[in-house]
Amino acid sequence: MKKLLTGALPLALSVSLAACSKSVDPAATPTPAGSTSSATTPSDAMSSGTTDDTGATDTGTTSATAGPVDQATPEAAMTSWLGAMVAGDGNTVCALMATGGKAISSIPGAAAACGKTITPMLDQIKELGAAFQGLKISGATVNGNNATFESVTTEPALAADVVSSFKAVKIGGKWYVTQS
After folding, report:
1. Is 78 left (phi over 0), alpha (psi -120 to 50) or beta?
2. Among residues 96, 155, 158, 84, which one has the least CA distance to residue 126?
3. Residue 13: which H helix or E strand, with range?
4. CA spacing 20 to 30 A to 107: which of 4, 53, 116, 176?
């Protein structure tokens, strides 16, 4: 079972993220003058913590819950993103992602396109959600507005293999999951 999870889930997540990133290339999505986007950034009602922008490693621990999205720290954003992934919530997954230095939700039409693309893929990994019950991530390496998960500690331990290939970027005071 562990082999299946550590192999299948990262692959599914990578494919899903790549699909959304390609479908919302910010350079290819011009914003017409006077237009506005109906996409919104998720509420971060739980964002009461502070984030260290000095490059220090955040040693906080974040646990996955079914509650509101939390983007206060890279660990919180990753926990919310992975929780939304295994719950099959494509719209939340996309709202927590960034590509090309921009939040997908800030690119006109991108969040809707991403959600439409990713949701069918997420339906195939929903059954893996039980393996991530009580997810906790700690120890992302923060360097300014960028973070990596290569050296994180997770509970369950197999989650470290899943998140290690992803990164986070801080945009407008909130953390987003990205691959670049």
Report:
1. alpha
2. 84
3. helix 2-23
4. 53
CA distances from 167 to 1, 51, 116 (A): 26, 16, 23
For residues 26 and 105, the answer to whether their CB atoms sit within 8 Å is no
In angstroms, the CA 47 to CA 68 distance is 10
Amino acid at 46: M
Q: Which long-range contacts (CB under 8 A, 24 or more apart) does 48-53 make?
A: 48/72, 49/73, 49/76, 51/142, 51/170, 51/175, 52/142, 53/142, 53/144, 53/145, 53/170
Confidence band for 68, pLDDT divided at 50, 70 and 90: confident
pTM confidence score? 0.69
Q: Where are the beta strands (DSSP E) in the chain?
A: 61-63, 98-99, 102-103, 136-138, 141-143, 146-148, 153-155, 167-171, 174-178
Mean pLDDT confidence for 139-162: 93
Which one, of 100, 89, 76, lies nearest residue 16 by Cα?
89
